[in-house]
Design goal:
- It is a single chain.
- The protein contains 6 helices and 5 strands.
- The longest helix is centred in the middle third of the chain and has 33 residues.
- It is mainly α.
- About 40% of the residues lie in helices and about 10% in strands.
- The protein has a 3-stranded antiparallel β-sheet.
- Strand 4 and strand 5 form a beta hairpin.
- It has 2 domains: about 70 residues, no CATH class; about 90 residues, Herpes Virus-1.
- Bound molecules: zinc ion (ZN) (2 copies).
- The site of one zinc ion has 7 residues, from loops.
Length: about 200
């Protein structure tokens, strides 16, 4: 067809219902410069119908398939593992966040913990006169947060510890959510901790 002067070739099949990728069974096609396309049954018959019903020449426009042939491969090699890794990373983050939430005390539980005012004179023998978290001495009249285990701290110091680090008393490791949710009094179990 190229030798006869054709600028392009449309090859159709009356019966074949599927698209066919054409190729040269043998030999070199490097000397073929005109484009060609295969048409299956429906498209081919439609084209034949149009040409036989029109006396004017029919313009057929061949368009190159612009999809990037490596796209699928690229998707499989790079994008899929990335999505997988992202998924693993996200589920790891969610799990560690859940673990973290289990380790800390809820704000509302901490806010319900007792508050007392510090007076040097009223201090008992075994009671601390400084905050074990920031090591600052308590000032007279200062408000202190008292945990169920009777250990006291600056509210700002211990609230931050309980709500962001651990739900345990920094000194005796009593679980303050366990102690407050079961009983506001000190339970015998916790007494053994304190002693
Ligand atoms: Zn403090
Ligand atoms: Zn304690």
């Amino acid at each position: 067809m190229q030798q006869s002067g054709a600028v392009a070739v449309v090859i159709g099949d009356w019966d074949q219902p599927h698209w066919v990728t054409m190729y040269a069974p043998a030999g070199d096609t490097a000397d073929i410069s005109i484009p060609s396309v295969f048409l299956p049954r429906t498209e081919f018959r439609a084209l034949v119908y149009l040409t036989s019903n029109n006396n004017t020449p029919l313009l057929v426009s061949l368009q190159r398939d612009e999809t990037w042939p490596w796209m699928d491969m690229l998707l499989i090699i790079f994008v899929s593992p990335s999505i997988m890794l992202l998924f693993i990373y996200l589920s790891y983050k969610i799990r560690s966040r859940q673990r973290k939430l289990q380790e800390i005390a809820p704000m509302n539980v901490v806010a319900r913990l007792a508050i007392k005012t510090f007076y040097h004179e009223k201090r008992l023998e075994n009671e601390a006169d400084s905050c074990a978290i920031c090591l600052e001495d308590y000032a007279p009249g200062e408000e202190l947060r008292v945990l169920p285990c009777n250990h006291d701290f600056h509210p700002i110091c211990v609230d931050a510890w309980l709500t962001t680090q651990k739900k345990y008393c920094p000194l005796c490791k009593v679980n303050i959510t366990f102690a407050t949710s079961h009983n506001n009094e000190i339970t015998p179990l916790i007494h053994t901790f304190v002693v």
